[in-house]
Amino acid sequence: MRSLIVTALVLAAGAAFAQEHQEVNDANNPLTPKVTLNLHDYYIPSFIDTPGNPHSNQFLLRGLIPSDMFGLPELFRFTLPIATAPDIPSGYVTGLGDLTLMDIFILPKHGDVTLGAGPLVVLPTATDTSLGAGKWQVGAAGVVVAPQDWGLLGGLLTYQTSFAGVSDRPDVSLLTLQPIVNLNLSDGWYLRSSATWNFNLENGAKYIPVGFGVGKVIPLEKGITMNAFIEPQYTVWHDGPGAPRWQIFAGMNFQFPIRKPTE
Asked: What is the signed CA dihedral for 128, 77, 152, 157, rounded to 10 degrees?
């Protein structure tokens, strides 16, 4: 009898851990089909080979809306920056950056691996020349996510190029890669690394940062999930001036279920 009770307790504990593990992975999965509001911030206190030792800050208002308008599951994402950037020689300027729109179509799964791909558009909505490229841009994005027993592996690849805009501003040809590595702990805590690698194909400047941070997933009422994190990131390789020497990436994500949990 005692062995049966112990076995039942072990199974119950294992099921509870697996459920918590799944909730943490879902909260960090960029392809989770839930309405999502992201409040993200990049603070850059130091740049490489930049006179005057300037700093900058970029707050990102992001939203994710699931849909199946074209017959496939898709995720429509927008990103609107509110930035403070150096404005030589007057000091600093604060305002809106360029609006990025992304529509990711979720492809059929290959085992536990989920793939997504779709178009990307950048609108020149910046309120100052220091805050945006001044160019209309188009491109594409691809996402891969592979949940693991211990956490989550994934990546986001984007490419964007300019086709119109202010004629005396530099053209845009930008490739970015964001590897995602999460290690789940207990009680909703997890370790994370998600720094974005930047490759400017127009002028040859490029840099690769590496991040290491911590986060916590907190279930709220009515199926809503909050995910708070902080992740310092350091540039381990660069080619050309202007790359962040290091930066602090922090934020809060809120996921809202499309249907009630009881449905």
From this structure: -60
CATH topology (fold) of 2-256 = Porin (2.40.160)
Q: What is the pLDDT along the chain (263 residues), one digit of tens a residue?
A: 666 554 444 343 444 456 678 899 999 999 999 999 999 999 999 999 887 789 999 999 999 999 887 778 999 999 999 999 988 777 899 999 999 999 999 988 878 899 999 999 999 999 999 999 999 999 999 999 999 989 999 999 999 999 999 999 999 999 999 999 999 999 999 999 999 999 999 999 999 999 999 999 999 998 899 999 999 999 999 998 889 999 999 999 999 988 644 44
Query: What residue ranges do the domains of the chain occupy?
Result: 2-256
Helix, strand, coil share of the chain (percent; to 5) = 15, 60, 30
Q: What is each CA distance from 67 to 7, 36, 121, 226, in whole angstroms?
A: 43, 13, 18, 22
CA angle at 45 for the pair 82 and 137, rounded to the nearest 5°:
40
DSSP 201: T
Amino acid 144 reads V
Q: What is the pTM of this model?
A: 0.88
Quickly tell me which residue has 């945006």 as its tokens: 132
What is the radius of gyration, based on Cα positions, of the chain? 21
- The pair of structure tokens assigned to 110 is 């290959």
